[in-house]
Amino acid sequence: MSIVVRDVHAHELDSILELNNAAGPSILPLDAARLRHLHDTAEYFRVAERDGAMVGFLIGFGAGSGHDSSNFRWFESHYPDFFYIDRVVVASRRRGGGVGRAFYADVQSYSEVRHPLLTCEVFLEHDNDPVRLFHGSFGFREVGQHVMPGTDIRASMLVKDLCSYAWVRETYGGTLPDEPWLGRPRVPARNTEETKA
Predict the structure, then answer these.
(1) C-alpha dist (Å) from residue 122 to 5, 47, 166
(2) Where's the N-acetyltransferase domain (predicted)?
């Protein structure tokens, strides 16, 4: 009955696409090409499993990644360094069972040794009070609102200060120890080709 959060495998993208597009109006739909682009460029792309079945995924990007989301660019125009949660989806039958909290604990653990802020947005057009309450209980606060171009969807822009970042930066500078629990950033496919050249 435990929740396992692990890196995504490319062969799982069809299942992830189906999960994303069944999530309802609080998550923008994707097509296969866009999901492949996210897979190839994301710094953090992990899935959650419970009882051997995939029950959700989370995709994230660090500042300076060049991510093309208007919400990411909004944060980029307001903060010099942050980690951005692009999307998190939990299967409807598993909501309220701790999967979201497992994802947020994992992405925070990853981010806090690399960035001072964890950022995301929540759509305001839909009945998203449970989602806003979840984020508030996890320490996020609203720092502005943004209307996404071409959609007229208003998003509440949320930030969480990562208190460990300053200590890690002071102690280790830009070089983290080589410890398995720290994990390494995914190498996006675009960078893989560059290193072969």
Answers:
(1) 22, 20, 27
(2) 3-160
